[in-house]
Amino acid sequence: MDSSEHPHQHPTPTRARRAWSAAGIAAVAALALSGCADAAPDDDRGSSASARATAPADLPTGQTAPDGDTTDVVTGLEAPWSVVRTGDDGDALVSERDSARVLELQDDGTMREVGTVDGVSHGGEGGLLGLALHDDDLFVYSTADDGNRIQRYDLTGTTGSWALGDATTIIDGLPSNTFHDGGRIAFGPDDMLYASVGDAGASSDAQDEDSLAGKILRLTPDGDVPDDNPVDGSPVWSLGHRNVQGMGWSSDGTMFASEFGENTLDELNVIEAGENYGWPEVEGEGGEDQGFVDPVQQWSTDEASPSGLTVVDDTVFVANLRGEVLRAIPADDPGSSTEYFQGDFGRIRTVLEGPSDTLWFVTNNTDGRGDPVQGDDRIVSVPLTRAAG
């Protein structure tokens, strides 16, 4: 079975939008958004979808781990894809893939609509995907009728009144399909914009240096090609990718990326400028003799489908969809990992550092491929503990 979110399946029709709720926040019931959550199906996960994590007793120095009870930050989201925090507290912006809405989550748990990204064509895995913040601008990756694109929006207002201002297209015409759309964007420690572009179902294009399919791109915030990119005048930073959906950097600048395999192996890669990661000539390890870079860790596709990724205190956290698990991987020993919340929350799309020594992760059970319970989809918070030393 294809680990790239099963392209032969199609999302179910979008249900009526439900009211958002946050644990213990009665004010959310007064939001001007109608509807209620679907009744929970017969599922091992309860409507509260709570769980507890226990950090390893021998947690290495410099590492961090979930440790404690989970709580819902907010519930009732429809096919959420990306979350970016706007400050040191619990304020954040959330993208909904199919509605093309950008939502604001405030520290008290209330939600409001910031705006809708114009011209989004959703279907399959396409739609409103990645978000990234840079200075006072919101960068947005989305699918339009003529391909995927990255736009920069002026973000006006302040907490509780954020709004989308004028949009400037950074790059457009990126390969798109109903599957393998990539979609993750992030600013690196070099202040450059990195973007993952899937192979859009044309696997051979991932090896074509003249195609942007199956690549990680690197651009300036204005959309220009940096002078120190591997190929003069090209936005391509690395090639030979199938469908990267997670990117992050450790404290020493090492770049990690999570990647969907096809029928056999999903990957965690260390990304270096100009390197080739082998797709479609090789899946998983075994490509070094052909000049490809092997992954630092791999998983069978039925236990992974790695999507979002973040690095906290040199621990790489990877959200997994089909595997329904959160993995923690030491940046200095990326061949090992610890699993948390196996099956407790269903599909997990995104993970990010939360406020006040917490980790947030985002479920993805309402996108047509999961089994939602009451309250899905949700942002979940769990305390983090750091190893002494």
UniProtKB/TrEMBL annotation:
InterPro entries recorded: 6-blade_b-propeller_TolB-like (IPR011042), Glc/Sorbosone_DH (IPR012938), Quinoprot_gluc/sorb_DH_b-prop (IPR011041)
Keyword Signal found: yes
Sequence ranges assigned to domain Glucose/Sorbosone dehydrogenase in this UniProt record: 77-369
Iron among keywords: no
UniProt KW keywords: Signal
Name recorded for this polypeptide: PQQ-dependent sugar dehydrogenase
Annotated segments matching region Disordered: 38-71
Signal peptide: 1-39
Ranges in coiled-coil conformation: none
